[in-house]
Amino acid sequence: DQQVKQNSPSLSVQEGRISILNCDYTNSMFDYFLWYKKYPAEGPTFLISISSIKDKNEDGRFTVFLNKSAKHLSLHIVPSQPGDSAVYFCAASEYGNKLVFGAGTILRVKS
Amino acid sequence: GAVVSQHPSWVICKSGTSVKIECRSLDFQATTMFWYRQFPKQSLMLMATSNEGSKATYEQGVEKDKFLINHASLTLSTLTVTSAHPEDSSFYICSARDAGGRAYNEQFFGPGTRLTVL
After folding, report:
1. Residues in chain A closer than 8 A to B44 (CB atoms)
2. What are the tens digits of pLDDT across the range B3-26?
């Protein structure tokens, strides 16, 4: 049973435009959500996180939105840059316990 | 800050041999470390949670006698794949959680170890 789902396996965006990556979850006990970026043959690097008590968190070009009623979160990257091309994983945890990862979305930013 | 290293970065071994992978937190103390494996084009799957000074907690379906985890200090955890077989070939990634200072929920990942068993 997949508790965290990223339904779009890939996304292609033009440089300078907005990239929107989506994530859905089923466990209402999740209270912390994170986005990671991963290049092939490397470990994930932390991008941005959000607590369930917030609905938005912004860090530079990256903004994460959380809609608890819909059990949905999204990562917005604006403006998108070619260096943003990578696999993006959404992850969730419950009370500081283990992270549960989505399957990832491959983002390609075309110049 | 929050650097996690893994050694080796890649290893090729013969079937039946054992392989040890080290995970170190370089600039912080990690009371908890996690071991993941990733198959091609798939997500990271948690194998076990390792707490310093105590036995690791394994996820369902992970053989604890095959994947030995030791977390002897606040900066080092090791994963030993015993009697490795070709189906154990995978990308193994560790992560560490900062014992203090940073957000408790955040994990910092190592660069991963590519294991190929011939």
Report:
1. 44, 89, 101
2. 899 999 999 999 999 999 999 999
